Amino acid sequence: MRLLLDTHVLLWWLSDDRKLAKNARDIIANPDNEVIVSSASAWEISIKRALGRLEIELDDLENAIARNGFRPLPIGIYHTL
After folding, report:
1. Per residue in 41-77, pLDDT tens?
2. Which of 13, 30, 38, 52 sits at 20 to 30 Å (Cα–Cα) from 71?
3. How many helices (H) and strands (E) does the chain have?
4. CB under 8 Å, gap of 24 or more: what pairs does 14-21 form?
5. What is the Cα–Cα distance from 20 to 35, expressed in whole angstroms?
6. DSSP secondary structure code for residue 67 in this structure
7. Global pTM?
């Protein structure tokens, strides 16, 4: 199965937050599934951090995504059009 993580789900996964349901954790952790993180999530996290609504270390975000076996999904101008 191919999964695109929502920004909240990504944050909950990375922080091991209990807001992420056990069945969602199991699906994300399943090595048979391809987990994708959109660059829009990184952008959203950056904006929320700049506004003071979120405390997260951004320097390690890309590495944290890779360490968890997630694949980045870049967004180009053609996607927005």
Report:
1. 999 999 999 999 988 877 889 999 999 999 999 888 8
2. 52
3. 5, 3
4. 14/64, 14/68
5. 15
6. H
7. 0.87
pLDDT given for residue 77 in this prediction? 85
Helices assigned H by DSSP within 1-81:
7-14, 22-29, 39-50, 61-67, 77-80
pLDDT in tens, 1-57: 999 999 999 999 999 999 999 999 999 999 999 999 999 999 999 999 999 998 887
Instruction: Name the token pair of 38.
Output: 């959109």
Residue 31, classified by CB atoms within 10 Å of its CB into exposed (0-12), middle (13-18) or buried (19+), is: exposed
Nearest Cα to Cα of residue 28 among 14, 42, 48, 39:
14
